[in-house]
Amino acid sequence: MIPQHGTLEISRSHLRHNLALLRQSAGRARLCATIKANAYGHGIEPIAQLLEAEGVEWVCVYNLEEAFGLDTFHFQTLVLAPLQFSETKSLPVADNNSLHKIARRLDDRASTPIIRVNITSMESARQLSRLAAESKVQGAIRVHMQIDAGLTRAGIEPREAPALADIIGSLPHLALEGVFSHFSHGDEPGHPTLERQTATLLRTADEIKVKFPQLLVHIQNSGGAFHLQNKNAFDLARVGIALYGLQPSTKHPIPELLPIARLTAPILAIHDRPEGVGVGYGHTFVTKRATRLAIVPVGYADGCPRVLSNNCVAQIREVDVPLVGRVSMDQIILDITELPAEIAVGESVTVISGNPEKPNSLDRMADTLNTIGYEIATHLGARLRRVIVD
Predict the structure, then answer these.
(1) Cα–Cα distance for residue pair 79/102, rounded to 1 Å
(2) Which one of 6, 275, 298, 380 has the minimum C-beta count within 10 Å?
């Protein structure tokens, strides 16, 4: 039976290549692979398998739910979202029970792998310590503290950070392990904020290190791993988009990166139609000659953006063919009139190319839509079959 779905092929060799580039570029910092948002749409399970096989020890995710989903692996995991507690004084019993279970899973004596949380306020630190005591945590919950060095998003003000560090250090069941920040312009080499924000974090970290000399310090993202000057000042490099072979910024490309994903799907049907036939919803394409049309079972639910209707290509036997008519939820339609007549149902189609120069690569699609590869990648659908290839 011909599959009714697309297949996202994840290249082991391309991921290995990108890891080697990142390790070389990050200085002495250990890589911390960012695998939030289902590994940027690529699939957290296959990406985690590959990373573990390649000796990556640290990963970061956005929230606790993503971290708990990695229980079968052996990573050191950092949760980037700040841990916050409700200001409500009394919570329902069910909520309290859930919090106690969470606290026990953060215990560094009981948990494998160990999960680190991000604390950015004194009240959250106190409540987490209290919860750990109530939950009979035997070890410590490891904490990283986010500093707002200029992104103006999450994080504590630099001047307030030493006091928060002291509070965390004084509370039972908490252990301050790291401080970190995030660049606002990490994708722009030479941007003045790189050095300014780096200096802010390092100055703050140096003050905290007087009492916490083993503190881990990290700020690099993918762009920072390549563009930052004083890379050896940091212990971890949190690399995301470049891991997947996509560009932090297509305006400042890193030419060596290789996309790790390719989306393929079979032709499900072929229709021969005369001139003057409307195609797809709204008949936004009308045949101008006798036309051969191929129906392919992927659509915007799978990560092929609807706004690329009539404005993209796919490849069959490495030949570009135009996408015609609207992209629907489950299908696209291709004009294969110029291809050999023996093209038949079941023939493989490359819907999203792993060649970064092709107009249907993730970065080129993003350029067409005036957005970024991150957004296109994270929309790769859950029903795609994800497989690891060499």
Answers:
(1) 13
(2) 275
